[in-house]
Amino acid sequence: MFMYSVHFYEAKLNFDTNFFNTLRSSLEITLHVWYPAAGRLTVSPINGKLDLLCNNGGALMVEAKTEVEISQLGELTQYKPFYEKLVHKPGFNGGFSDMPLVVVQVTWFRCGGYSIGVGASHSLFDGKGFFNFLRSWALRASSNEVSEQLMPVHERGYLLIHQGSKLGKNGVFRVPAFDHLHHLIELASACGDSERKTGRCRFSEMDFIAMEDNYAFKTFRLSKEIVESLKRKVSNRGPLSGFSTFEVVAAHLWKVRSKSLGLRGENKVCLQFSMDARAKVVPPLSTEFSGNAYVMASIFTTAKALEEEPISTTAYKIREAKESITDEYIRAYLIALDAPQKSLPPLPELTIVSDLRNLPFHCADFGHGHAASAALLPSPLPQSAFLMRAPNEEGAIDVSLGLPLQIANAFSHCFLHV
């Protein structure tokens, strides 16, 4: 699975006509340091799992032109199908050895501006690793210098050792993220289409698969005033205080999305959110660890309980889930990843949140200043939501997620009117 970002840069008077070559040569230099990104995935003949082969296979970089002007795209943070043409998507013929792990497309607009669309394999990077790679490349392109603080750490031995470690006194540690997903999948499998239509199965009242063609990836901006209003609302609804912005926004998002989807009663609902494991393992990984070091925290309840409980209770559950991510949890998570994996069916009851506010993608400066804006392309999982720092508006948060078209207006009204 690839993650893609598109960075928009407006026309500059002092534009370098040799800029594409500058980008290409600086990417080559960056790949010398970030050498796993120039490698390829391969299937291990021993266990059938994916291995990372550092064979200097290189990244793929292409150049394109369009007659469109950037101003014609309107609000750049709002995803548009046209953005799919601004990234290069390599074809997959079944052989990993031919598939680059990093792809880049530079697109020139008629107005003189340009975009840089970057894709990277999620098997290689998590969000933080992806951002640090972009930042290192941008610094090389703009100044040919990179701070020692940005030098990546590629050593993965610690995580590989933990995959074979034992847990606790009994060697058993349950991982809620996997248990909750397994339970949702079992419920979905037990609920046939005919049962859903006749109402005999209350697990999923909406035909999620049929809605995929009518899905939209939307971005909603929570202004600083809305965020502060949400925090006041949380503090007024319970004795607990001091909730983080993420805890409050994620609680609000989960409640509004579940309600908008029409999930009611004893339907099970689940919130999962990514957690950076770098500082959680013992001993901790370097903050510049370049690989995929996130695990999922999880909360499981009924739609009725989620709707009726005050937002402060939901925020507190999120805080508890965050605090449950310990070294033992991470080791158990890695062991669980070793088990046979199944594809995830469409689950409207599942809400996934990734907090990317500390990764300001729009700040990538390749030599012409910060991007006018940066946008993520939709995840293959439509129930995924991304929190990003809003460009040019201090304290505001852009929340991007996939929604069925028929509930988009209802979600927008409830989400933005606090």
From TrEMBL:
| A Pfam family | Transferase
GO CC annotations on file:
endoplasmic reticulum; nucleus
Any one Gene Ontology MF annotation carried by this entry is: long-chain fatty acid-CoA ligase activity
Any one of the GO BP annotations? response to auxin
Record family assignment: Belongs to the plant acyltransferase family.
Q: What is this protein called?
A: Uncharacterized protein
Q: Which organism is it from?
A: Amborella trichopoda
